[in-house]
Inverse folding.
C-alpha cells in the first residue's frame, strides 16, 4: 500500500514537472512574439533562461521515467502514462527550441523598420500557445475530447501559415527591400506552425494513452487489416 | 533461458524494424532531392508510399516496445535500449515527414524554369542522409564514436543552410521573379537542416543508451551541481 502511494506520488511529480515545462513553453512563446510586436528586446530577455530550465526538466523527467520503469515495473495504464510522459517531454523540449529559433528571427528584424502591422503571426502564436496549454490540460485530466480539439485547431494554424506566406510574397515581389524582413517573418510563421504540430503530437499521445488506440496515422492502412 | 532467448529475439526484431525505417528514410531523401535536381517527377513517385510504410513501422515499434516493457519488465541496459528505440522511432517518423515537406516544395518548383545549378542543397541532402544512416549504425553497434561523428557533422549542415540562405537572398533581391523559387529552395534547406537535427538527436540517444549519460544539453548547468 505504501509502495503504491509512493508510486502515485512519483507519477504526480512527473505530471507537475510536465506542467511546469508547458507553462515555461507558453511564457516563452508569449514573450518572443511580444518582443516582435512591441519591438522591445527586453521583453524576451528571460527566454534563454527559460529554455535552460526546460532542458533541465527534460533530463529530470526522462531520468524519473526510466527510474519508475526500472523499479516499479508498471503495466497497463501506468505504463502507458509513463510512456506518454516521456513523449510529451520530448515534444515540449522541441517547442522550447522552436521559440529560440523564433527569437533569432526576431533579432534579425529588430534593427530594421517594421514591414507591416502584424496580425496573422500574433494570431498564430496565440493559437499555438493555447494548443500547448490545452494539450497538457488534456494530458493531466485524460480528457480525450480536449485532445481532439487541440488536434483540430492545427488546421487553423496551417491555414494562417499559408496566408502569411501569400501575403509576404506580395511584399517581397513588390519591393526587394522588404525581402530579408519578409523572409524572417515567413520563418517565424513556420516555427509557430511546428509548435502547433508538436502540440498536436501531444494530443495524439493523450488519446493513445487514454484509449490504448493509435490516432497518429489514421489514413495509414494497417497490414493486419483485411 | 528460453524466455531470455525470446526476449533477445524481440529486441533483434525491434532493431531490424528501426533499420528498415532508416533505410526508407534514406531512400526518401535521395529520391526527393533527385526529383529536384533531375526535374523529373517520376523519380520520387514512390516517396508517399515509403512514408506510409514508415508510419506503419512507427506504430508497430511503439506497440512492440510497450509490450516488451509490460511483459518482460526489463531493467538496466535492456530498458535503456528499449527507451532509445522508442525515441529513435519518433525521430525517424519525423524525418520521413520532413521529406514529404521537401517534396511539396519540389512540386512548387517543378512548373518553373530552374533558378540556378544546385550544389549546396544536394550536398546538404547527402550529409543529412549519411547522418541518418550513421546514427542508426551507431545505434545497432552501440558505437558512441560514430554517434559523436554524426553530432559533429551537424555543424556542416548548419553552415550550408546559412550559405544557401545568403546566396538565395542575393537572387531574390536582384530579381523579384526569382522570389517564389528561391523561397522554396530556402525552405528545402531548412527541412534538410532539421533532418540533420533529428539524426543528431538519435546520436545523442545512442550515447545516452551506451553510457547512461545525458549529452543533450551539455551547456545546461544542473541544479544539483555545486
Amino acid at each position: 500500500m505504501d509502495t503504491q502511494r509512493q508510486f502515485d506520488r512519483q507519477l504526480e511529480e512527473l505530471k507537475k514537472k510536465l506542467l511546469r515545462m508547458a507553462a515555461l513553453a507558453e511564457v516563452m512563446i508569449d514573450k518572443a512574439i511580444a518582443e516582435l510586436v512591441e519591438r522591445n528586446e527586453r521583453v524576451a530577455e528571460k527566454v534563454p533562461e527559460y529554455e535552460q530550465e526546460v532542458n533541465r526538466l527534460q533530463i529530470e523527467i526522462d531520468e524519473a521515467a526510466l527510474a519508475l520503469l526500472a523499479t516499479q515495473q508498471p503495466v497497463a495504464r501506468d505504463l502507458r502514462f509513463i510512456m506518454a510522459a516521456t513523449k510529451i517531454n520530448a515534444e515540449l523540449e522541441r517547442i522550447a527550441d522552436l521559440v529560440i529559433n523564433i527569437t533569432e528571427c526576431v533579432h534579425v528584424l529588430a534593427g530594421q523598420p517594421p514591414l507591416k502591422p502584424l496580425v496573422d503571426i500574433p494570431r498564430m502564436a496565440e493559437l499555438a500557445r493555447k494548443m500547448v496549454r490545452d494539450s497538457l490540460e488534456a494530458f493531466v485530466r485524460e480528457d480525450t475530447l480536449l485532445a481532439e480539439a487541440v488536434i483540430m485547431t492545427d488546421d487553423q494554424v496551417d491555414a494562417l501559415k499559408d496566408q502569411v506566406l501569400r501575403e509576404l510574397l506580395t511584399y517581397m515581389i513588390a519591393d526587394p527591400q522588404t525581402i530579408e524582413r519578409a523572409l524572417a517573418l515567413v520563418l517565424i510563421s513556420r516555427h509557430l506552425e511546428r509548435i502547433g504540430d508538436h502540440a498536436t503530437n501531444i494530443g495524439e499521445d493523450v488519446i493513445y494513452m487514454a484509449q490504448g488506440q493509435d490516432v497518429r496515422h489514421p489514413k495509414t492502412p494497417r497490414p493486419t487489416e483485411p
